[in-house]
Amino acid sequence: MQPGLYHILFISAALFFIGVYGFFTRRNLITLLMSIELILNSVNLNFIAFNKYLWPGRMDGLFFTLFIIAIAAAEAAVAIAIIINLYRSHQSIDVNDAEELKY
Question: 2, 32, 52, 97: most buried, per Cβ within 10 A?
């Protein structure tokens, strides 16, 4: 049995809300980065699902997904570099210790 569009959208919504919950409740920069990645993956899942079920002959959703994956990889690399530099200077990756990065 193949999952339908509603099943995939339910999984995507669950991933999105888990990511939003993790983003708003955690104070560790690594978990914030993981939450952002969950949100981006839920968007990718939506693009793939809608591409498959609404426009099966077109590749637009797949191209958007590949573009988002490339942007997410670049974002993760930059974020990890910032986190490493923050840890070297403050010996902590807590969000509250990163007050100097605001301005």
Answer: 32
